[in-house]
Predict the structure.
Amino acid sequence: MYRSHSCGELRESHIGTTVTLSGWVSKTRDKGFVVWVDIRDRYGITQLVLDEDRTSKELLEQARNLGREFVIQIKGEVIERASKNANIPTGNIEVLVSELTILNESKTPPFTIENETDGGEDLRMKYRYLDIRRKPVQNNLIFRSKVTMEVRKFLSGEGFIEVETPYLIKSTPEGARDFVVPSRMNEGQFYALPQSPQTFKQLLMVGGLDKYFQIVKCFRDEDLRADRQPEFTQIDCEMAFVEQEDILNVFENLTKYLLKEVNGVEIDSFPRMTYDEAMSKYGNDKPDIRFGMEFGELNTVTQHKEFGVFNSAELVVCIAVPGAASYTRKELDALVNWVKRPQVGANGMVYVKCNEDGSFKSTVDKFYDQDDLAKWAAVTGAKPGDLICVLSGDANKTRTQLSALRMEMATRLGLRKPNEFAPLWVVDFPLLELDEETGHYHAMHHPFTSPKPGQLELLDTDPGAVRANAYDLVLNGNEIGGGSIRIHDKETQATMFKHLGFTPEEAKAQFGFLMDAFQYGAPPHGGLAFGLDRLVAILGGQETIRDFIAFPKNNSGRDVMIDAPATIDDEQLKELNLKLDIQE
Ligand code: ASP
């Protein structure tokens, strides 16, 4: 028996009992006549004590030589601690050691295994197994496990069946590049790793399974913008004989259930907002609605004066930043420079200080008088003390820029509180999105998403105006998940592929299996997927998904611990019928 108790278990009620503990040496303090050793495991830390009066010389010597992270087993008596430590649950007791076995020695770890470590990110990732010994990382993984358990509990309670779908498949277009896997047995052919189980879950509906879910890895070979992972986990779901409303209900309830079970937060019902409204009010299809600062459009109240910048702009739009009228000139200049950074990309910013006495002071006083500025304030709902920040230009770009400023100001003002949860549904997404570079439309969600009833014809005349039966769940400014009601008949699916630029032959070659299946009684169906990593991070009050993944990859998609990706040897290449031709 390695242990009778865990290192986090012993309390005053155990005083007088003999116990066996196993764990890692966290710290040793040697006062000469007495040695204290902290022993740690997943459950906590217990202080061990050895001293000249009560411990043999050899044992004391052995304890003295214990290194950090040695794995030890001890036997001893639980005694009351002389100086108690109120900060840890085991702080009232210690264990007087009578036997000590070293189960395994350890090299000195490259960083300290403490809550606050001296190890930088790269080092911690290289030795992730040591990082995982740290409490904050363990807590995150335990938290993730709790969330996934609750998800399974809820969904199986609702009658969902967990089904595994294959990883070695053919491409599923979800907007990213595929990771591919060469097939040894089928010369010159490749599998693609799923960007999501999309087509399979739809086939499960054709198969009559009715309610499917899976907690599943998805793979997307995309540029790893901050906080993305090439492999990530989805809570993937699909339901048959449902309308959008049915799906929103089930997954709103799932989210409410999680917020309650995991965070103790109760939320009545989630607001809904159309995509168009989200874009015009927040410049963003995943608005953070924990705070106001809604956009005010100023075109009608600005474009009648001599100010050419506004007159020529498609959109003049602003936010009122609470309390920022007190910014100094220097701070305001810095803010203007902030929006001009390439990451934001504005050409400049006009601002209006709403003074406490009701007067206004702006950077465009030459063109606009107090009455004009009062109108701006009225549109924006700005109060005395607020700073109105105005951007102008191309509508889409300007909205995106102002959204970045809105988020930045909210962060600076401490309005993005991690323990406050503001979910909402964004609905009625456009079906198609114009790729500015190629001039082609592609599916905003994916090619299996159905257009809103009666809008199919619009595809020929005004493709950008077609709205989809597609929805996203947004939480605290993050897209937690999204889905759609699917196309379930062959003709509509073929029309959709045509509009996405597939020839009938290409569509058949890539998705013939799905269109075939649609000919055998495909039920109306729809679903959605939640990004588990992000959901867990947000429920955990943090925003970095990497912190909730046991073995994450870095920004170049590398696992620095196992050193992957890596080359393979010539023999393997030959077996796979592959030749490398790496361009410099
Ligand atoms: N497969 C979709 C995605 O990964 C989700 C869905 O439409 O159900 O975003």
